[in-house]
From TrEMBL:
UniProt KW keywords: Membrane, Transmembrane, Transmembrane helix
Protein name as catalogued: Polysaccharide biosynthesis domain-containing protein
NCBIfam families: A_thal_3515
Entry keyword Ribosomal protein: no
Membrane topology listed for this record: Single-pass membrane protein
Organism: Rhynchospora breviuscula
GO CC annotations on file: Golgi membrane
Tree of life domain: Eukaryota
Lineage of the organism: Eukaryota, Viridiplantae, Streptophyta, Embryophyta, Tracheophyta
């Protein structure tokens, strides 16, 4: 990937910072308010982001077009509860775009977690472990219906050890709050021993089904050019809820079961 010129990077960063200032000034529509320490708007956050992206030689994992899809949602919904699977070169950006809300990051790579937190210790990030491996993806997609605690009518996350797709031991902050926007850009899913994103996708679907607050959950899934991401998204996030697709990013807007009035069948017993 070619590195942007200094001039290009400077202009992009300036536009980015200016957009954040405007967004922070005009946010009026708010989603579920965090029940724990709310970040207050600080120009320091914006300035730190500006300096970071002007001086960085690294390009964020997502393309400009992909980022724009998520940004358009945050423009309407922030400040809100924003859960991000993964820490990356774009973490400071996501944190800043949700200024005034609460953004929590979940990262499985301990060394990378330490590296990012050393540079940005103010990020609300947690190191987490997964019970799955990418090599198990076929077994998991074929066998989840045989475990009753994976079934949609019984599904829950915290402490659900019997359902291998349930993220059962995340930090309590994840279970204690409802998430308005979820970004799935981790864990790793490109070699057999990696955790894969199967459990993250399933767990996000469970969070969406059981939501009690106003509004639907916007879920963004990256790397849908890969078989596992695409297969599990179609199984649990559902094609009928997909409202956007840009590059390798799919955007789903999923209503909780309690508000699926116009759908037929026993909604408690199906994801899609």
């Amino acid at each position: 990937m070619n590195r942007p010129s200094v001039a290009t990077a400077t202009i992009a960063a300036a536009v980015f910072a200016g957009s954040i200032l405007l967004v922070s000034s005009f946010f009026r529509f708010s989603c579920t308010r965090p029940s724990f320490s709310i970040q207050t708007f600080s120009h320091t956050d914006v300035m730190m982001a500006l300096v970071h992206y002007v001086t960085s030689k690294e390009v964020p994992q997502q393309s400009r077009e992909e980022i724009s899809e998520s940004f358009s949602v945050l423009l309407k919904r922030a400040p809100c509860n924003f859960l991000v699977f993964g820490l990356g070169r774009d973490s400071l950006m996501w944190h800043t775009l949700n200024t005034g809300g609460t953004t929590v990051f979940l990262e499985e790579d301990l060394n990378w977690y330490k590296t990012v937190l050393k540079e940005s210790p103010f990020l609300k990030a947690h190191h987490v472990e997964y019970r799955t491996k990418l090599s198990q993806a076929d077994d998991l997609i074929q066998g989840w219906k045989q475990e009753k605690l994976c079934a949609p009518e019984n599904a829950y996350l915290k402490g659900n050890q019997r359902c291998r797709l349930a993220l059962d031991s995340l930090p309590n902050v994840v279970y204690e709050n409802e998430w308005d926007v979820i970004m799935i850009d981790a864990p790793k899913g490109y070699f057999d021993a990696a955790p894969g994103r199967m459990a993250a996708i399933y767990s996000a679907a469970v969070m969406a089904r059981t939501r009690k607050g106003k509004g639907d959950i916007d879920i963004f899934l990256h790397d849908v050019d890969r078989k596992v991401e695409k297969t599990f998204a179609n199984e649990f996030l559902c094609e009928k809820y997909r409202v956007g697709a840009v590059g390798r990013l799919w955007h789903f807007r999923i209503p909780p079961v309690s508000r699926r009035w116009n759908e037929t069948g026993d909604l408690s017993k199906k994801f899609c």
